[in-house]
Amino acid sequence: MTWIWIILIAFLAGVEGILDEFQFHQPLIACTLIGLATNQLPVCLVLGGTLQMMALGWANIGASVAPDAALASIASSILLVKSGFGMDGVAIAIACSIPLAVAGLFLTMLIRTLAVGMVHRMDEAANQADFHAIDRIQRMALGLQGLRVVIPAILLWAIPNEAVYVFMQSMPTWLVMGLDIGCSLVIAVGYALVINMIATKDAWPFFALGFVFAMIQQFTLLALFAIGFSLAFLTIHFLSSKQTTSSNDPLGDILDDYE
């Protein structure tokens, strides 16, 4: 039964890497689902949360394609589960995720190269007004994106647990520490990108409050969620009230713009 769940999760992650609709390819979701399927939720959740901070710094810019977060999440989760290291293996799994993401990038380029021929076939079908053929070819292309993650996931899951344990244990300390430092730098880049997107005078107070509340150890995650939800609700309420007042006083808007 675990096989079926892993294949399904891997397929959804590969497809969502292109669709971006339900976000199954995001590390936090993909690793969590693998953890649920293998009864290793805590360690996979920690792995997914860390990889998610790294993925914030991965973006497609022009013709440059970002590393494959879907394959990195699925493959590193499987390695972590099969190694049996538990929380002690999270750092090693994170170190393995970087080369896995690069390997997934090459697989993505290969699939997209094959998809060029499918696009030409869709053009021919469009000239003949054969919309069923267009839908069929699109589904085939998405299926290839899913298999891009499914096949490596099956191969990794088929490897004996002892072999995975020996492989992860044989990784030199300097390599693990170096990759861990590199991952930390990528996480910092991800934070910086998010800060640049929300860097407004209205958002900075909440940014500072987040650090203050996070330092108070008596607060649980549920309490932090309640505080964040309350602040967001109050902010939306006050902004909507301000917009309503401004719409009722158009002369005030003109004077504000003049000032």
Tags for this entry?
259 residues; mainly alpha; 2 domains; 11 helices; transmembrane; sugar transport; phosphotransferase system
What report would you give on this structure?
This protein has 259 residues and is mostly helical. The protein folds into two domains: 1-199, no CATH class; 200-243. It contains eleven helices and no strands. The chain has helices spanning 2-19, 27-38, 41-55, 69-83, 90-127, 131-158, 161-170, 173-198, 204-215, 221-248, 250-258. Helix 1 (2-19) packs antiparallel against helix 4. The protein is globular, with a radius of gyration of 23 Å. It starts with a helix and ends with a helix.
Estimated share of beta-strand residues? under 5%
How far apart lie the N and C ends? 67 Å
The helix count comes to 11
User: Over the alpha carbons, how many angstroms does the gyration radius reach?
Assistant: 23 Å
Described by strand count, sense and barrel closure, the largest sheet is: none
Q: Would you tell me the overall average pLDDT?
A: 81
Find the structural class using helix and strand composition. mainly alpha
Number of strands: 0
Low-confidence stretches: none
How do the SSEs run, as a string of H and E? HHHHHHHHHHH
The figure for the number of domains is 2
Morphology call? globular
Helicity, as a percent range: over 70%
